[in-house]
Design brief:
By secondary structure, this protein is α/β, with parallel strands linked by helices. It has 2 domains: 2-191, inorganic pyrophosphatase (n-terminal core); 197-323, Diaminopimelate Epimerase, Chain A, domain 1. The protein contains 12 helices and 12 strands. The strands form 2 sheets. A 6-stranded parallel beta sheet has the order 3-2-1-4-5-6, covered by helices on one side. Strands 7-8-9-10-12-11 form a 6-stranded mixed beta sheet, sandwiched between helices. It binds adenosine monophosphate and manganese (II) ion (MN) (2 copies). One manganese (II) ion is lined by residues 25, 82, 107, 126-127, 157. One manganese (II) ion binds at residues 19, 23, 25-26, 82.
Length: 327
């Protein structure tokens, strides 16, 4: 962290980027770090390839996030947030890879330690908790706008303080953010209480698609492109649905297969692009499973992308259940 701080003191033009299909921690870390660097007179660009999910647009600063990069040569530094690999930022990975200094700030267990400098703590509950630490060590000021982003990142990445990554820091940092002026009800209302009707209808279809392996240890839900179009929903509306499959008693691993919309028009055969989300009850390391398919994540929450036939994918996933030990 010392080297990162020394470097940031001298850098002038900084590109900040986070992963595609951003969650609350991705956006929270992008915005909190961006607002902080601006406050100490750095020129910043906040980049995310995917649109900002509607539920996060209340965060002050989201209007600064752009989805294009015009000239890469002007940046002396790129900070990559909440990404286990540089590829997670999407199609601009090679271009961003040309920035002279790359700083990797993340908490995924599968982090590849890419970049010039790394601030990677895999036992941290969220990347926003690392941003909090960085600002604190720098002696910086956390204003109310920054506090909203840090709070939201920790709240969402811990599943509202329920997931196994929840620790003392989660509460201590969030308590401090509340003392700075964050209203927990406003955050909860925006993040969990403003779903479109389509999203609730999508939940209905997701629950209807539920399949359980013969030994009861694996649950699987499937969302197709047509379900998204029928309910007029976007990939962002899929976020969180897997938790219903994870809640079932005796289930050790929950899987959500979701077909990428608009990614399939050029594919003439039955193969399609899917995002596969994996969750475990803690007894199985799903990051290892995701890594087998070139994905990544955490021990209890991971994912990967695959182009395949749905029936083959389902068979492979259900076969995984046989390997889940008893007890
Ligand atoms: P998701 O299933 O998309 O909610 O993601 C669960 C966790 O796995 C998150 O921490 C993601 O950052 C990570 N993850 C998801 N998809 C990928 C992927 N294709 N490659 C690497 N990590 C991923
Ligand atoms: Mn994330
Ligand atoms: Mn995260």
């Amino acid at each position: 962290m010392k080297k990162i701080i020394q470097h940031l003191e001298n850098s002038k033009q900084i590109l900040l980027a986070t992963h595609i299909e951003p969650d609350g921690d991705a956006l929270g870390s992008l915005i909190s770090m961006g607002l902080f660097l601006e406050a100490i007179n750095k020129k910043t660009t906040l980049y995310c390839e995917s649109p900002i999910p509607a539920i996060y647009r209340f965060l002050p600063g989201t209007e600064r996030v752009v989805s294009t990069i015009d000239s890469i040569s002007k940046y002396d530094t790129a900070i990559i947030l909440d990404c286990g690999s540089l590829q997670r930022i999407g199609k601009m990975d090679e271009l961003v890879g040309r920035v002279p200094t790359i700083i990797n700030i993340d908490h995924h267990i599968t982090n590849s330690y890419f970049g010039t400098y790394q601030f990677v703590e895999t036992d941290s509950c969220a990347t926003t908790a690392l941003i909090y630490k960085l600002i604190t060590v720098l002696g910086g000021r956390i204003d109310k706008d920054i506090a909203f982003s840090i709070y939201t990142g920790i709240l969402t990445d811990t599943g509202s303080f329920r997931f196994s990554n929840t620790n003392m820091d989660s509460f201590a940092i969030c308590e401090e953010m509340v003392s700075i002026g964050v209203d927990p009800h406003i955050v909860a209302q925006n993040v969990y209480g403003t779903y479109s009707l389509g999203r609730i209808k999508l939940l209905n279809l997701a629950l209807d698609s539920l399949e359980i392996s013969r030994n009861g240890k694996l649950s699987m839900m499937t969302l197709t492109e047509s379900m998204l179009s029928k309910t007029d929903t976007q990939p962002e509306d899929v976020d969180g649905l897997i938790n219903y499959a994870k809640r079932i008693e005796d289930v050790k691993v929950a899987v959500l297969l979701s077909e990428y919309p608009n990614g399939n028009s050029r594919l003439s055969n039955a193969k399609r692009y899917y995002h596969v989300s994996l969750r475990s009850d803690g007894s199985v390391d799903v990051a290892k499973i995701a890594a087998l398919f070139e994905g990544g994540g955490h021990k209890t929450a991971a994912g990967f992308d695959i182009k395949t036939k749905l029936s083959d994918l389902k068979t492979d996933i259900l076969n995984l259940s046989e390997k889940l030990s008893s007890g």
